[in-house]
């Protein structure tokens, strides 16, 4: 409890300062200035540097320095994720930089124990940013739809959509994509197990990073699964070997793992259309300058901080 109070004294004021001023400037100018990002990054690095230099940093300094390696890994992963989201046009350059800034300013001990992954603790921050923003955008779009709803036009467009879907939809390709993502999650699980055995660590202990990768690279991975039949055959052979291995230690445990993998696969297949639509709505609202994304990022930080 004492460390959290100290965190609030040291880090929360600068977070609120940067959050408020970037939200205001994003609302007025649709721009997040680099100087505020630099202020946050320099402040964060200076805090860690001072606790490292001072001979008596107390329990807080000891805890910060003890988790410094995890903080560095989390910051590095956050930079990669921020870049990927920017590269695939899911948020702007300023949003990516601001996310990195917040990831640097939130100490590891401040993240909730409900979800915690030392190697990408900021996944909780990312979720706290996108979930409220997504709910708002979907609600706003639903209200917009209801206000302009015309039953006749709706039925005509629905029939047109169904006809186009029946023409374009390919069950064989969809099956390849589904099986491909199933194997993707299977291999990620096997890789985590091997890394845990090799390094004797809890690296990538959950499916958060593979799930995030699958959502970001859904289209690219889908094309690979659709067109590369050799990959599917090779992966299927590995899957058969895994089945044989699964039966060797426990059929019940194996069944639970397969159900988990199927759940992840179906989640991605369902979530990606929603995720892509949310991105489109975000882009549309950003162009219209209705809701600056910096506001949602500040809200996400506060949810992460006080959860």
Q: What's the SSE blueprint?
A:
Elements: H1 2-10, H2 12-29, H3 34-53, H4 58-66, H5 68-87, H6 93-105, H7 122-147, H8 151-168, H9 171-199, H10 208-216, H11 218-227, H12 229-249, H13 251-288, H14 293-306
Query: Which blocks of ≥5 consecutive residues have pLDDT under 50?
Result: none
Tell me about the biggest sheet? none
- H/E topology pattern: HHHHHHHHHHHHHH
Distance between the termini: 14 Å
Oligomer: single chain
**Count, helices:** 14
Tell me how many strands there are.
0
Task: Classify the helix fraction into a percent range.
Answer: over 70%
**Structural class by SSE content:** mainly alpha
CA-based shape: flat
Average of the residue pLDDT scores = 76
Total domains, how many? 2
Strand percentage lies at: under 5%
Using only CA atoms, what is the Rg?
23 Å
Overview of this structure, please?
The structure is a single chain. This protein is 83% helix and 0% strand. The chain is flat, with a radius of gyration of 23 Å. It has helices at residues 2-10, 12-29, 34-53, 58-66, 68-87, 93-105, 122-147, 151-168, 171-199, 208-216, 218-227, 229-249, 251-288, 293-306. The longest helix is centred in the C-terminal third of the chain and has 38 residues, at 251-288. α7 packs across α14 (293-306). With 307 residues, the protein is mostly helical. It contains 14 helices and no strands. The chain folds into 2 domains: 2-137 and 291-306, no CATH class; 141-288, no CATH class. The chain crosses the membrane at residues 6-24, 36-54, 60-86, 98-116, 122-146, 167-187, 199-218, 230-249, 261-278, 290-306. It comes from Candidatus Sherwoodlollariibacterium unditelluris. This is Prepilin type IV endopeptidase peptidase domain-containing protein.
